[in-house]
Amino acid sequence: MPIPFQLFDTVSSTYTYLLGDTGSKEAVLIDPVLEHAERDAALIQQLGFKLIYAMNTHMHADHITGTGKLKSLLPGSQSVISRASGAKADVYLDDGAVVKFGQHELLATATPGHTDGCITYICHKQGIAFTGDTLLIRGCGRTDFQQGSPERLYQSIYSKIFTLPDNYTLYPAHDYKGLTATTVWEEKKYNPRLTKSLEEFVEIMKNLNLPYPKMIDKAVPANKVCGLY
Ligand SMILES: [Fe+2]
């Protein structure tokens, strides 16, 4: 598996990741965005990959997932999300489940806190992890809606992500400043929220005063059914 193909949505600043096994040509897509389903499908076809799983790290509130549309564009692919997300999909993952494509595998690791159903996908062989909104570059997902809990988020990051080797590359679901990836070492050392104590972290998260998400009333109902509504 090469470095993941990192695709971007400028509206929601979402990263979508294409991972392909060059031998078997099996591929997976993490966090596709509805409006870019055609782009993603065209890239997969051009590269000669066969999409087997269109996966989400969690039930998003800021954009509609492309998993349902990709299933119709690339027949044979299946949608994947955690069981704890409460969303519908073809395949449900519990903590510790393994997603296989070709000779590669992603370990689905439950990292609740931003939402109940957040998953971090870890590929130990490559030393990479896809953290969704659990851990962002020098930030983290908000915890003020969708069953958010700053205590759980802190616990998830410390027990499941900061325990990975320092050199692991972390790929987030979003970045709003143009950064593309980070490492466990960088976030342990420089994340302005996660370098604080649990008590300080909870205070920070409770006082962010973020605006109500623009897309949430449309995105969450749609994302319960793979973006097909
Ligand atoms: Fe999110």
TrEMBL record:
Which cellular compartments is it found in? Mitochondrion
Q: Which UniProt keywords apply?
A: Acetylation, Dioxygenase, Iron, Metal-binding, Mitochondrion, Oxidoreductase, Transit peptide
Xref: InterPro entries: Metallo-B-lactamas (IPR001279), Mito_Persulfide_Diox (IPR051682), POD-like_MBL-fold (IPR044528), RibonucZ/Hydroxyglut_hydro (IPR036866)
**Main localisation, per the record?**
mitochondrion
Task: Give the enzyme class.
Answer: oxidoreductase
Gene Ontology CC annotations of this record: mitochondrion
Residue span, Metallo-beta-lactamase domain: 13-174
**Enzyme Commission code:** 1.13.11.18
Per the record's keyword annotation, is Cytoplasm included, yes or no? no
Which cofactors must be present for this protein to function? Fe(2+)
Query: Known catalysed reaction(s)?
Result: S-sulfanylglutathione + O2 + H2O = sulfite + glutathione + 2 H(+)
Example GO biological process term? Answer: RNA 3'-end processing
A GO molecular function assigned to this protein is: sulfur dioxygenase activity
Family per similarity comment: Belongs to the metallo-beta-lactamase superfamily. Glyoxalase II family.
PANTHER family (UniProt xref)? PERSULFIDE DIOXYGENASE ETHE1 (PTHR43084), PERSULFIDE DIOXYGENASE ETHE1, MITOCHONDRIAL (PTHR43084:SF1)
How does the record describe its quaternary structure?
Homodimer. Monomer. Interacts with TST. May interact with RELA.
What this protein is called in its record is Persulfide dioxygenase ETHE1, mitochondrial
Organism this protein belongs to: Plutella xylostella (Diamondback moth)
